[in-house]
Design a protein that fits this description.
Layout: E1 3-4, H1 6-18, E2 27-36, E3 39-47, E4 54-57, E5 63-66, H2 68-74, E6 77-83, E7 89-95
Parallel strand pairs: 1-6, 2-5
Antiparallel strand pairs: 2-3, 4-5, 6-7
Length: 107
């Protein structure tokens, strides 16, 4: 399941609190876009979940919503925030590290 870092949760909470007319159901929603150059592209939006979406409760009450194909793609990933070239926060997705991943320790 997608892991959300506390920093990413903080940014999600800031985004959802700034969105007009939001309620407790709104979160950061991931959907798979049409693949370009054989690379998976993700679309981000602020919205409420729809039927079939997977919802991940992140730290500090942040909510991440994923349509089914995005949930499958993100199941072994970590959502974090890094600074872009201008120093603004930008979401970053990395593979979770663990005993079965190439970056994890092998026993």
């Amino acid at each position: 399941m997608l892991e959300v870092t506390p920093m990413a949760a903080e940014v999600i909470n800031e985004l959802t609190s700034q969105s007009e007319g939001t309620d407790d159901g709104v979160g950061l929603r991931f959907a798979l876009a049409a693949e370009q150059n054989s690379q998976t592209a993700l679309e981000l939006s602020l919205s409420e979940p729809v039927d079939g979406d997977e919802v991940v409760a992140a730290p500090a009450g942040a909510k991440v919503i994923m349509e089914p194909a995005a949930a499958q793609y993100l199941e072994d990933k970590v959502l974090d925030v890094r600074q872009d070239a201008e120093g603004n926060p930008a979401f970053a997705i990395a593979r979770q590290e663990g005993p079965d991943s190439p970056n994890g320790q092998v026993g």
